[in-house]
Amino acid sequence: MFNHKKWVALVTLLTFLLTFTGPALAREGSGAITMEQALEIVKKNFTIPKEMNQVSQGVSENEQWGRKVYEFNWSYDRAPGKYMYIHATVDANTGDILNFSSNKDWNPETGKKLPKPISREEAKEIAVAFARKMHPSLIPSIKLLENPGSYYEPYYPQWGPTHYYFNFVRLVNGIPFNENAINITINGHDKKVTAYFFNWEQDIQFPDAGKALERTKVEEIFKEKVGLNLRYQRIYGMFGPMPNLGKKEIKLYYSPGRQNYDNNIMLEAYSGKVIDYFGKEVPVNKKVYIDLNKGPVVVDVKNKKPLSLEEAKALVAKYVELPSDFKLLNSNYYEGWGNGATKVWNFNYGKGNFGYPDSLYVSIDAVTGDLLSFNTNEPWEPSNNKPVNYDKDKSREIALEFLKKVSPQKFEQVVLTDNTMEPEY
């Protein structure tokens, strides 16, 4: 789902940068249109309130795309409840508006009640009409990706307006190219376009789709190399897993069979190779099947007395190798985590008074005695770089031995899910 708050924060940062780097950016570009013409293009297509009399403008050049861009920012005079902004960019060569975003002048402190939002279908009609107005010649070459979940509806009315998001992607020979798109955001209350994004490359060569493997062949390769696996998934609410985790419904579903839960893999259309987004071939692990008849070990914890502080500390020493110069800085006992019944002992070890920068955190299930988690916080300095002594295979062996040590029963009930996408440094 679109993160409305992060989007607002990003545009605010852009506004700040443009406002305070004025002389460096505000030089007239050598594009086909002038900055004044670009400004008129924005005003022709979007309403700029008269009271927004603070405007900063500049020109920048993206070397990667070879594109000069005019940038504009409007904001209100400093006044109570007036914090509306508008940001827009225009291609200096084509005159296309590349980006437009604004926030609605809405202040929860004023007690102003928002009208009931329009439906997604009504917002869709507005978005389609606006896309047609901005780029009538591209309408045959775009497709709206139907995603009913693409909207922001505040959980509480005072959190702000409802917005609907629409993504029109480019089609080439009927095949979508998602990097070229028109994105439009509609305010569900006043029916205005509050955000717009346009990216369309002209000089680009697309591979010949006629040389792609037949769909039936690709399906066989997918079945052999990737496949579908059954998984259990808990259905979370708006606020994630907490609280009352145990009351959340668990669903059984099929997902692509990469055991690292990584869906960022593709089949190359010509060769059928499994590749990642870096174009690197992904090694296919041998499939592992679990004997479903071997049920889990059930521990009766309903009437079991929680561990004492000393008993939990003894388990920490058993599970984790504590540095000789570390001391226990603090501990706490907590009930109600997760499904509301879990009882946990938490420990913080370290050298200093607050366990930072050298510190170690451990959590023990106070009923079962299981090690729930532990992590270390070790300071890093460029001058203290250490050589890599263990490769991936050796590290895997260490991880497996550790799991056998801390939870031998559960070790028999889990499967190693290798991450096939190597980090690139």
What do these coordinates show?
The structure is a single chain. This protein is an alpha+beta fold and 425 residues long. The strands form 4 sheets. Strands 1, 2, 3, 4, 5, 6, 7, 8 and 9 form a 9-stranded antiparallel β-sheet that branches. Strands 14-15-16-17 form a 4-stranded antiparallel β-sheet, covered by helices on one side.
What is this structure, in a nutshell?
The protein has 425 residues and is α+β, with helices and mostly antiparallel strands. It has helices spanning 4-20, 22-25, 35-45, 120-134, 215-225, 309-319, 392-406, 408-411, and strands spanning 54-62, 67-75, 85-91, 97-102, 142-144, 151-152, 163-172, 175-187, 193-199, 228-234, 250-256, 265-267, 274-276, 327-337, 342-350, 359-365, 371-377.
